[in-house]
Amino acid sequence: MEKAEKIWLNGELIPWGEARVHVLTHALHYGTAVFESVRCYETTRGSALFRPRDHMQRLADSAKIYQMNMPYSVDELCIAVRQVVKANGFKECYIRPIAYYGVGEMGVNPGQNPVDVSLVAWEWGAYLGVEGMEKGIRCKISSWLRIDSRMLPPQAKASANYGNSVLAVLEAQECGYDEAIMLNLAGQVCEGAGENLFIIKNGTLITPPLSAGALSGITMDSAITIARDMGIPFVSRDISREELFLADEAFLTGTAAEVTPIREVDGRVIGNGGRGELTARIQAKFFDIVRGKDERYYHWLDFI
Question: Domains of the chain (ranges plus CATH)?
Answer without folding.
Answer: 6-122 (3.30.470.10), 130-290 (3.20.10.10)
